[in-house]
Amino acid sequence: MTTTPISNIRNFSIVAHIDHGKSTLADRLIQMTGGLTDREMAGKEQVLDSMDIERERGITIKAQTVRLNYRAKDGKNYIFNLMDTPGHVDFAYEVSRSLAACEGSLLVVDASQGVEAQTLANVYQALDNNHEIVPVLNKVDLPAAEPEKVKQQIEDVIGIDASDAVMISAKTGLGVPDVLEAIVTRLPPPKGDREATLKALLVDSWYDVYLGVVVLIRVVDGTMKKGSRIRMMGTNAAYDVERVGFFTPKMEQVDELGPGEIGFITAAIKEVADTRVGDTITDDKKPVTEMLPGFKPAIPVVFCGLFPVDANDFETLRAAMGKLRLNDASFSYEMETSAALGFGFRCGFLGLLHLEIIQERLSREFDLNLIATAPSVIYKMHLTDGQEIEIHNPVDMPDVVKIADIEEPWIEATILTPDEYLGSVLKLCQDRRGAQKELTYVGSRAMVKYDLPLNEVVFDFYDRLKSVSKGYASFDYHLTDYKVADLVKMQILVNAEPVDALSMLVHRTRAEGRGRAMVEKMKELIPPHMFQIPIQAAIGGKVIARETVRALRKDVTAKCYGGDITRKRKLLEKQKEGKKKMRQFGKVDIPQEAFIAALKVDS
């Protein structure tokens, strides 16, 4: 096997907003370079989206990599390492990892929709990694396409020259050969020294039932050979390399990977947790002294409890969580118990879509029926004795007297919306205690920047934003800092018993509205018992909202024909006493559906 000179290697990723055609373009590139034959491609769209859930929702969740061979117009053979990245805000960390392994990016923009919030976020990440960027306008064959206008938009909003953007239609294949040539001529080759000590970046890892942990690497210096002994600098563990290879998307084995190449290795590693993403891999005998910069670890921002509907499924759930954790380093969980819901797990996610996808994967791949508690975020509490604690479950909140102040996380949100929906978008942000930072125009669309508290956003902000803008607004956010807020713990009491699964931390000004909505919902959901059931929302000892579920009554006076009124009254009094006693000792059965529906209550 002849080694390709480093000047003939191109590593690039495709970045874009959701649905602008990244995965479809990747399909065409694979097809045109002969990575897969037409027969293998037949009937299969988005070859790189391997999970069923990715195909159904039409989104990319895991970044995927492929190696393509291309013979350019100059007669030379080139190797392309292509990384298809997710476009959704929750998977931004997948994007950052992929970008660190590449030197350039294809920026795909939909010629009919223009620049969206996520386009901006991903481009800025690419620019932070010093990428050379080639703008590609997709869907130019649509009647609604306005390529000239969109080029202008790219220049105005992102500030990169788009005059020679490549015009394509990824679906039909129009203009895709020009993309291949642009990759050769406009993207830089990687740099690296073949003779130096091995230094490679650990880009990703996942678990394979037959091979153990498969590690995706980008070799920076030196060569990664089969049979050599390597050391992970972060965990300081050493392994013997068993396989070296790359994906075409099929696995192909080779003897070695040189500088600038992206490929995979397996080395009998048992746990994905042993392979820290962003770690530096080096030679065990003569390690390099300096580690590569790596990337920021994925920090969970949204927490919620997951409980099995059937208590017997707990062990299955535990095993399923372990398996998902093997392939998703950003997902964290710990065990917790709840009086209402039994045993379950407190899980951390990168955002609501991440939460939804993990939930869907658990129910689909492991056939589990789950209940999720209301999502909450991490609060920092400063206690009167000078301690600082982090709380991500409202149940763990200490006594109010011990708390000096509570800080909540804030985000900076960027929202792009057509002009006619601007009013309702601004109102939505104001209602969620937001503070406007700036408002600018990008063509006919407004770009708003808002500071918002994260706990107002995790609840249902995204859904509301989509409904007030009829689906046209796009939204992207990043965490900024923590600010002190007037937060209170609101509990829902059913028959004077607090229901821990429904307690939440809310802002004092929003507590009454949220509480009222919650008790009204619970009233509809709890079936009548033999006694009257009060449902209350309370902050500390103060009840802020109340509803009552009426009692089922037996007609005790049915057998009284005629006679004195006192006889009837006596029977009614006796019944009343019985009801009172019942209410004291009676147990209220709250059906599981009531929890699920109450947790979905829309503020």
UniProtKB/TrEMBL annotation:
One of its GO terms (cellular component) is plasma membrane. Its EC number is 3.6.5.n1. GTP binds at residues 19-24, 138-141. It is a peripheral membrane protein. Required for accurate and efficient protein synthesis under certain stress conditions. May act as a fidelity factor of the translation reaction, by catalyzing a one-codon backward translocation of tRNAs on improperly translocated ribosomes. Back-translocation proceeds from a post-translocation (POST) complex to a pre-translocation (PRE) complex, thus giving elongation factor G a second chance to translocate the tRNAs correctly. Binds to ribosomes in a GTP-dependent manner. HAMAP family: LepA. The keyword Nuclease does not apply. It is an enzyme of class 3 (hydrolase). It is found in: Cell membrane. The keyword GTP-binding applies. Belongs to the TRAFAC class translation factor GTPase superfamily. Classic translation factor GTPase family. LepA subfamily. Pfam families: EFG_C, GTP_EFTU, GTP_EFTU_D2, LepA_C. Its main location: membrane. It catalyses: GTP + H2O = GDP + phosphate + H(+). Gene3D superfamilies: 3.30.70.240, Elongation factor 4, C-terminal domain, Elongation Factor G (Translational Gtpase), domain 3, P-loop containing nucleotide triphosphate hydrolases, Translation factors. PANTHER family: TRANSLATION FACTOR GUF1 HOMOLOG, CHLOROPLASTIC (PTHR43512:SF4), TRANSLATION FACTOR GUF1-RELATED (PTHR43512). This is Elongation factor 4. SMART domains: EFG_C. Residues 7-191 form the Tr-type G domain. GO terms for biological process: positive regulation of translation.
